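Batch job 17 of 40 flagged for manual review because the log was empty.
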Amino acid sequence: MPTTDPIRPAHPAATAHPTSLWHRLADGRVQCDVCPRNCALAEGQRGLCFVRGCSDGAIVLHTYGRSSGFCVDPIEKKPLNHFLPGTPVLSFGTAGCNLTCRFCQNWDTSKSRDMDRLAATASPEQIAAAAAAAGCRSVAYTYNDPVVFLEYALDTAAACRVRGIRNVAVTAGYVNPAARARLFGAMDAANVDLKGFTDAFYRRLCSARLGPVLETLEYLRQETSVWFELTTLLIPGHNDSDAELARMAAWVVGHLGPEVPMHFTAFHPDYRLRDLPPTPLATLARARRIAMEAGVRYAYTGNVQDGAGGSTWCHACGRLLIERDGYRLGHWGLTPAGTCAHCGTPCPGHFEARPGTWGARRQPLRIAD
Protein backbone atom coordinates (compact mmCIF):
# COMPACT_ATOMS: atom_id res chain seq x y z
CA MET A 1 0.00 0.00 0.00
CA PRO A 2 1.44 3.44 -0.91
CA THR A 3 2.60 5.64 1.95
CA THR A 4 3.24 9.36 2.29
CA ASP A 5 5.81 9.41 5.11
CA PRO A 6 8.47 12.02 4.35
CA ILE A 7 11.96 10.98 3.30
CA ARG A 8 15.01 13.17 3.37
CA PRO A 9 17.13 11.94 0.45
CA ALA A 10 20.87 11.71 1.00
CA HIS A 11 23.94 11.07 -1.16
CA PRO A 12 23.44 11.50 -4.02
CA ALA A 13 20.43 13.81 -4.31
CA ALA A 14 17.27 11.82 -5.04
CA THR A 15 16.43 12.68 -8.62
CA ALA A 16 14.92 10.76 -11.50
CA HIS A 17 17.41 8.23 -12.86
CA PRO A 18 17.68 8.04 -16.67
CA THR A 19 17.07 4.28 -16.66
CA SER A 20 14.14 4.22 -14.22
CA LEU A 21 11.14 2.19 -15.37
CA TRP A 22 7.82 3.96 -14.87
CA HIS A 23 5.00 5.58 -16.80
CA ARG A 24 2.36 8.22 -16.20
CA LEU A 25 -1.26 7.17 -15.76
CA ALA A 26 -4.31 8.99 -17.10
CA ASP A 27 -5.26 10.21 -13.61
CA GLY A 28 -1.88 11.96 -13.16
CA ARG A 29 -0.29 9.35 -10.94
CA VAL A 30 2.89 7.52 -11.98
CA GLN A 31 3.25 3.73 -12.00
CA CYS A 32 6.47 2.03 -10.99
CA ASP A 33 7.10 -0.71 -13.55
CA VAL A 34 9.95 -2.54 -11.81
CA CYS A 35 8.02 -5.32 -10.09
CA PRO A 36 4.63 -7.03 -10.46
CA ARG A 37 3.10 -4.84 -7.75
CA ASN A 38 2.97 -1.99 -10.30
CA CYS A 39 2.44 0.58 -7.54
CA ALA A 40 0.50 3.64 -8.77
CA LEU A 41 1.72 6.65 -6.79
CA ALA A 42 0.70 10.25 -6.34
CA GLU A 43 3.24 12.95 -5.58
CA GLY A 44 5.04 12.21 -2.30
CA GLN A 45 3.85 8.60 -2.06
CA ARG A 46 6.05 5.53 -1.91
CA GLY A 47 5.35 1.97 -2.96
CA LEU A 48 5.10 -1.09 -0.77
CA CYS A 49 8.89 -1.45 -0.92
CA PHE A 50 9.06 1.95 0.86
CA VAL A 51 12.17 3.07 -1.04
CA ARG A 52 10.76 3.79 -4.51
CA GLY A 53 8.50 6.83 -4.60
CA CYS A 54 6.99 9.60 -6.66
CA SER A 55 8.91 12.87 -6.55
CA ASP A 56 8.52 15.75 -9.01
CA GLY A 57 6.31 13.59 -11.18
CA ALA A 58 8.79 10.71 -11.60
CA ILE A 59 9.75 7.51 -9.81
CA VAL A 60 12.80 8.06 -7.62
CA LEU A 61 14.97 5.58 -5.73
CA HIS A 62 15.49 7.25 -2.34
CA THR A 63 18.22 4.82 -1.28
CA TYR A 64 20.56 5.44 -4.23
CA GLY A 65 24.11 5.66 -2.88
CA ARG A 66 23.12 4.55 0.62
CA SER A 67 23.71 1.17 2.20
CA SER A 68 23.18 -0.68 5.44
CA GLY A 69 26.86 -1.60 5.27
CA PHE A 70 29.54 -3.39 3.26
CA CYS A 71 31.15 -6.73 4.05
CA VAL A 72 33.51 -9.20 2.40
CA ASP A 73 32.00 -12.70 2.56
CA PRO A 74 32.78 -16.13 1.16
CA ILE A 75 30.87 -16.62 -2.09
CA GLU A 76 29.41 -19.81 -0.57
CA LYS A 77 27.39 -17.65 1.81
CA LYS A 78 25.17 -16.28 -0.98
CA PRO A 79 24.81 -19.32 -1.38
CA LEU A 80 26.66 -20.16 -4.59
CA ASN A 81 28.52 -23.48 -4.64
CA HIS A 82 29.37 -23.63 -8.34
CA PHE A 83 30.61 -20.08 -8.91
CA LEU A 84 34.27 -19.30 -8.15
CA PRO A 85 34.41 -21.49 -4.99
CA GLY A 86 36.50 -20.19 -2.13
CA THR A 87 36.67 -16.61 -3.39
CA PRO A 88 35.71 -13.43 -1.52
CA VAL A 89 32.69 -11.34 -2.56
CA LEU A 90 31.91 -7.78 -1.50
CA SER A 91 28.31 -7.85 -0.27
CA PHE A 92 25.96 -4.93 0.26
CA GLY A 93 22.30 -4.01 0.33
CA THR A 94 20.09 -1.06 1.13
CA ALA A 95 16.66 -0.96 2.79
CA GLY A 96 13.22 -2.01 1.67
CA CYS A 97 11.73 -5.01 -0.08
CA ASN A 98 8.91 -5.67 -2.52
CA LEU A 99 7.78 -8.79 -0.63
CA THR A 100 6.29 -8.98 2.87
CA CYS A 101 7.69 -12.36 3.98
CA ARG A 102 6.60 -13.12 7.53
CA PHE A 103 9.71 -15.30 7.95
CA CYS A 104 12.29 -12.77 6.71
CA GLN A 105 15.75 -13.48 8.14
CA ASN A 106 17.02 -9.96 7.25
CA TRP A 107 13.93 -8.10 8.43
CA ASP A 108 15.88 -5.45 10.38
CA THR A 109 17.01 -3.91 7.06
CA SER A 110 14.61 -5.23 4.42
CA LYS A 111 11.55 -4.21 6.46
CA SER A 112 13.07 -1.08 7.94
CA ARG A 113 11.45 2.31 7.44
CA ASP A 114 14.21 4.05 9.32
CA MET A 115 16.38 5.61 6.63
CA ASP A 116 18.94 6.56 9.25
CA ARG A 117 19.96 2.89 9.28
CA LEU A 118 21.58 3.54 5.91
CA ALA A 119 24.67 5.12 7.42
CA ALA A 120 27.12 3.86 4.80
CA THR A 121 27.29 5.89 1.61
CA ALA A 122 29.26 5.12 -1.52
CA SER A 123 29.10 5.77 -5.23
CA PRO A 124 29.15 2.86 -7.70
CA GLU A 125 32.75 3.69 -8.62
CA GLN A 126 33.80 3.69 -4.96
CA ILE A 127 32.25 0.26 -4.43
CA ALA A 128 34.02 -1.17 -7.47
CA ALA A 129 37.34 0.31 -6.33
CA ALA A 130 36.87 -1.04 -2.80
CA ALA A 131 36.08 -4.52 -4.15
CA ALA A 132 39.24 -4.48 -6.26
CA ALA A 133 41.36 -3.25 -3.35
CA ALA A 134 39.99 -6.01 -1.10
CA GLY A 135 40.80 -8.70 -3.65
CA CYS A 136 37.15 -9.56 -4.26
CA ARG A 137 36.37 -11.47 -7.44
CA SER A 138 32.75 -10.34 -7.38
CA VAL A 139 30.22 -7.96 -5.84
CA ALA A 140 26.90 -9.29 -4.50
CA TYR A 141 23.69 -7.25 -4.37
CA THR A 142 22.11 -8.88 -1.35
CA TYR A 143 20.65 -8.56 2.19
CA ASN A 144 17.59 -6.99 0.58
CA ASP A 145 16.52 -7.51 -3.03
CA PRO A 146 18.42 -5.65 -5.78
CA VAL A 147 15.11 -5.42 -7.65
CA VAL A 148 14.11 -2.55 -5.34
CA PHE A 149 17.46 -0.72 -5.70
CA LEU A 150 17.75 -1.54 -9.38
CA GLU A 151 19.33 1.72 -10.59
CA TYR A 152 22.03 1.68 -7.90
CA ALA A 153 22.76 -2.00 -8.62
CA LEU A 154 23.02 -1.44 -12.37
CA ASP A 155 25.37 1.53 -12.06
CA THR A 156 27.55 -0.40 -9.61
CA ALA A 157 27.58 -3.47 -11.86
CA ALA A 158 28.77 -1.34 -14.78
CA ALA A 159 31.57 0.13 -12.67
CA CYS A 160 32.60 -3.37 -11.56
CA ARG A 161 32.73 -4.72 -15.09
CA VAL A 162 35.19 -2.00 -16.06
CA ARG A 163 37.52 -3.46 -13.42
CA GLY A 164 36.90 -7.10 -14.38
CA ILE A 165 34.85 -7.80 -11.25
CA ARG A 166 31.88 -10.15 -11.58
CA ASN A 167 28.35 -9.31 -10.41
CA VAL A 168 26.00 -11.48 -8.34
CA ALA A 169 22.29 -10.91 -7.67
CA VAL A 170 20.69 -12.48 -4.61
CA THR A 171 17.01 -12.06 -5.35
CA ALA A 172 13.51 -13.42 -4.93
CA GLY A 173 12.98 -13.01 -8.67
CA TYR A 174 9.77 -10.99 -8.24
CA VAL A 175 10.37 -8.60 -11.11
CA ASN A 176 8.69 -7.41 -14.30
CA PRO A 177 10.10 -8.44 -17.73
CA ALA A 178 11.77 -5.13 -18.69
CA ALA A 179 13.45 -4.72 -15.30
CA ARG A 180 14.34 -8.42 -15.32
CA ALA A 181 16.22 -8.04 -18.59
CA ARG A 182 18.15 -5.03 -17.28
CA LEU A 183 19.02 -6.62 -13.95
CA PHE A 184 20.25 -9.96 -15.26
CA GLY A 185 21.86 -8.37 -18.29
CA ALA A 186 24.31 -6.86 -15.81
CA MET A 187 24.84 -10.03 -13.74
CA ASP A 188 27.21 -12.97 -14.05
CA ALA A 189 25.56 -15.14 -11.41
CA ALA A 190 22.46 -15.20 -9.26
CA ASN A 191 20.91 -17.04 -6.38
CA VAL A 192 17.14 -16.99 -6.69
CA ASP A 193 15.02 -17.56 -3.60
CA LEU A 194 12.26 -20.00 -4.60
CA LYS A 195 10.33 -19.60 -1.37
CA GLY A 196 7.82 -22.38 -1.88
CA PHE A 197 5.95 -24.10 -4.65
CA THR A 198 2.32 -23.10 -4.16
CA ASP A 199 0.61 -19.84 -4.95
CA ALA A 200 -1.15 -20.10 -1.59
CA PHE A 201 2.21 -20.00 0.22
CA TYR A 202 3.33 -16.91 -1.68
CA ARG A 203 0.02 -15.11 -1.11
CA ARG A 204 -0.31 -16.03 2.57
CA LEU A 205 3.25 -15.50 3.75
CA CYS A 206 4.75 -13.09 1.17
CA SER A 207 1.79 -11.11 -0.27
CA ALA A 208 3.01 -12.16 -3.70
CA ARG A 209 2.45 -14.73 -6.45
CA LEU A 210 4.45 -17.75 -7.53
CA GLY A 211 3.96 -17.25 -11.27
CA PRO A 212 6.29 -14.27 -11.81
CA VAL A 213 9.09 -16.07 -9.95
CA LEU A 214 8.80 -19.13 -12.17
CA GLU A 215 8.81 -16.84 -15.22
CA THR A 216 12.06 -15.30 -13.98
CA LEU A 217 13.64 -18.73 -13.59
CA GLU A 218 12.61 -19.82 -17.07
CA TYR A 219 13.93 -16.52 -18.45
CA LEU A 220 17.30 -17.10 -16.79
CA ARG A 221 17.53 -20.61 -18.18
CA GLN A 222 16.31 -19.93 -21.70
CA GLU A 223 17.46 -16.39 -22.49
CA THR A 224 20.63 -15.65 -20.52
CA SER A 225 24.05 -17.10 -19.78
CA VAL A 226 23.81 -16.13 -16.09
CA TRP A 227 24.88 -18.94 -13.78
CA PHE A 228 22.13 -19.38 -11.18
CA GLU A 229 21.31 -21.55 -8.21
CA LEU A 230 18.10 -21.87 -6.18
CA THR A 231 17.48 -21.58 -2.46
CA THR A 232 14.40 -22.64 -0.50
CA LEU A 233 14.12 -21.86 3.20
CA LEU A 234 12.16 -24.80 4.59
CA ILE A 235 9.59 -23.66 7.17
CA PRO A 236 8.07 -26.43 9.29
CA GLY A 237 4.45 -27.03 8.37
CA HIS A 238 4.38 -24.45 5.54
CA ASN A 239 6.48 -25.56 2.57
CA ASP A 240 8.21 -28.77 3.63
CA SER A 241 5.79 -31.54 2.70
CA ASP A 242 7.02 -34.43 0.57
CA ALA A 243 4.41 -33.67 -2.08
CA GLU A 244 5.36 -30.00 -2.46
CA LEU A 245 9.08 -30.74 -2.50
CA ALA A 246 8.59 -33.44 -5.14
CA ARG A 247 6.54 -31.09 -7.34
CA MET A 248 9.17 -28.37 -6.98
CA ALA A 249 12.06 -30.67 -7.86
CA ALA A 250 10.19 -32.16 -10.82
CA TRP A 251 9.46 -28.66 -12.15
CA VAL A 252 13.11 -27.64 -11.77
CA VAL A 253 14.33 -30.70 -13.66
CA GLY A 254 11.68 -30.35 -16.37
CA HIS A 255 11.87 -26.58 -16.91
CA LEU A 256 15.41 -25.62 -15.86
CA GLY A 257 17.38 -28.84 -16.18
CA PRO A 258 18.97 -31.31 -13.75
CA GLU A 259 22.20 -29.30 -13.43
CA VAL A 260 20.69 -26.28 -11.63
CA PRO A 261 21.80 -26.59 -7.98
CA MET A 262 19.14 -26.47 -5.27
CA HIS A 263 19.87 -25.36 -1.70
CA PHE A 264 17.51 -26.35 1.11
CA THR A 265 18.23 -24.14 4.12
CA ALA A 266 17.10 -24.16 7.73
CA PHE A 267 14.55 -21.69 9.05
CA HIS A 268 15.18 -20.07 12.43
CA PRO A 269 12.26 -18.41 14.26
CA ASP A 270 12.34 -14.70 13.44
CA TYR A 271 10.31 -11.63 12.53
CA ARG A 272 6.62 -12.65 12.50
CA LEU A 273 7.07 -16.41 12.67
CA ARG A 274 8.65 -16.72 16.09
CA ASP A 275 6.22 -19.39 17.26
CA LEU A 276 7.62 -22.09 14.98
CA PRO A 277 10.52 -24.45 15.74
CA PRO A 278 13.78 -24.36 13.76
CA THR A 279 13.96 -26.66 10.77
CA PRO A 280 15.35 -30.08 11.80
CA LEU A 281 18.36 -31.39 9.92
CA ALA A 282 16.27 -34.44 9.07
CA THR A 283 13.87 -32.23 7.09
CA LEU A 284 16.72 -30.75 5.05
CA ALA A 285 18.17 -34.21 4.39
CA ARG A 286 14.73 -35.43 3.31
CA ALA A 287 14.32 -32.49 0.91
CA ARG A 288 17.77 -33.13 -0.54
CA ARG A 289 16.93 -36.80 -1.05
CA ILE A 290 13.59 -36.02 -2.72
CA ALA A 291 15.27 -33.56 -5.08
CA MET A 292 17.96 -36.01 -6.08
CA GLU A 293 15.41 -38.80 -6.59
CA ALA A 294 13.58 -36.42 -8.95
CA GLY A 295 16.76 -36.00 -10.99
CA VAL A 296 18.41 -32.91 -9.47
CA ARG A 297 22.14 -33.59 -9.69
CA TYR A 298 23.35 -31.05 -7.14
CA ALA A 299 21.21 -30.62 -4.02
CA TYR A 300 22.54 -29.07 -0.82
CA THR A 301 21.58 -28.45 2.79
CA GLY A 302 22.35 -25.10 4.38
CA ASN A 303 22.32 -23.11 7.63
CA VAL A 304 23.35 -26.33 9.43
CA GLN A 305 26.50 -28.37 9.95
CA ASP A 306 26.20 -31.14 7.39
CA GLY A 307 29.42 -32.03 5.63
CA ALA A 308 27.89 -34.51 3.20
CA GLY A 309 24.88 -32.32 2.40
CA GLY A 310 27.00 -29.22 1.89
CA SER A 311 29.62 -30.85 -0.34
CA THR A 312 29.59 -31.33 -4.12
CA TRP A 313 29.62 -34.90 -5.45
CA CYS A 314 30.08 -36.15 -9.00
CA HIS A 315 26.67 -37.19 -10.28
CA ALA A 316 28.24 -39.81 -12.55
CA CYS A 317 30.65 -41.72 -10.29
CA GLY A 318 29.70 -40.45 -6.85
CA ARG A 319 33.21 -39.22 -5.94
CA LEU A 320 33.74 -36.11 -3.81
CA LEU A 321 34.40 -33.04 -5.95
CA ILE A 322 34.35 -30.16 -3.43
CA GLU A 323 34.40 -30.83 0.29
CA ARG A 324 32.76 -28.16 2.46
CA ASP A 325 32.73 -27.70 6.21
CA GLY A 326 30.37 -24.79 6.51
CA TYR A 327 32.01 -22.15 4.30
CA ARG A 328 35.46 -23.75 4.44
CA LEU A 329 36.68 -25.84 1.53
CA GLY A 330 38.58 -29.09 1.97
CA HIS A 331 39.24 -31.79 -0.63
CA TRP A 332 39.22 -30.53 -4.23
CA GLY A 333 38.43 -33.23 -6.76
CA LEU A 334 38.09 -31.11 -9.91
CA THR A 335 40.62 -30.91 -12.71
CA PRO A 336 41.70 -27.45 -13.98
CA ALA A 337 39.11 -27.94 -16.75
CA GLY A 338 36.29 -28.33 -14.21
CA THR A 339 35.78 -32.07 -14.62
CA CYS A 340 35.77 -34.91 -12.12
CA ALA A 341 39.36 -35.97 -11.52
CA HIS A 342 38.23 -39.60 -11.27
CA CYS A 343 35.87 -40.12 -14.23
CA GLY A 344 36.19 -36.94 -16.29
CA THR A 345 32.51 -35.92 -16.08
CA PRO A 346 32.10 -32.12 -16.32
CA CYS A 347 30.77 -30.31 -13.27
CA PRO A 348 28.59 -27.37 -14.38
CA GLY A 349 29.43 -23.93 -13.08
CA HIS A 350 32.24 -21.38 -13.16
CA PHE A 351 35.43 -22.88 -11.74
CA GLU A 352 39.06 -21.86 -11.84
CA ALA A 353 42.09 -24.14 -11.95
CA ARG A 354 42.51 -23.74 -8.20
CA PRO A 355 39.90 -22.94 -5.53
CA GLY A 356 40.07 -19.69 -3.61
CA THR A 357 41.40 -19.59 -0.08
CA TRP A 358 39.14 -16.99 1.55
CA GLY A 359 37.60 -19.50 3.96
CA ALA A 360 34.74 -18.60 6.30
CA ARG A 361 35.85 -15.07 7.16
CA ARG A 362 33.33 -12.24 7.34
CA GLN A 363 35.14 -8.91 7.13
CA PRO A 364 33.21 -5.64 7.52
CA LEU A 365 34.42 -2.99 5.09
CA ARG A 366 34.28 0.77 5.38
CA ILE A 367 34.09 2.71 2.13
CA ALA A 368 34.91 6.38 2.49
CA ASP A 369 32.32 8.69 0.95
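Reviewer: the log was empty due to a logging misconfiguration, but the result itself is present. The two ends are 33 Å apart (CA to CA). Unflagging and moving on to job 18.
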